[in-house]
Amino acid sequence: MKLERLAVMTNVMRKGMTLRDFFEEAARCNVPGLPYVDDQDQIIGRISMRDIYKRIAVPDNVISLADAMGDRTDRLDLSEKHVLNAFIRPVERYVLKSIPNVSPESSLFKALVIMEAYNTHYIFLIDNGEYKGVVTRMVIANRMLDCLKDLERARDVPQS
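Below the sequence we write its predicted structure tokens.
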């Protein structure tokens, strides 16, 4: 299974864009992270949905209480004003320097190993410094199910 066939092509994030821009593009493409590029369009980092949520919505001191927390968290919930203020922040404040990536020619196995090493659900495909898309664990899961269905259909077709 070639990774390049699984890639979701997205726009990249760059200086001057906002968290709203990030959320819109990530939601449009159904991906949890996007590459961040410099003025020469070189990928120098990434923006991660998980990291943003942790930084704007989930205080570190609350994480250890997750299992003890009840359903009533009204005092901790995000206000609309807080969300609106967060959406106008520049994305460059949220750039992570680690860039999980492989070549589009890499194996699915290698991609999964690197995702584990980076503790992420996605990986960027980069070919000679050029961004070729992002592959997510969900895209891989859907492709594996498609392959399974194809095999099952092939078994059900009478051989002539």
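The longest helix spans residues 137-156.
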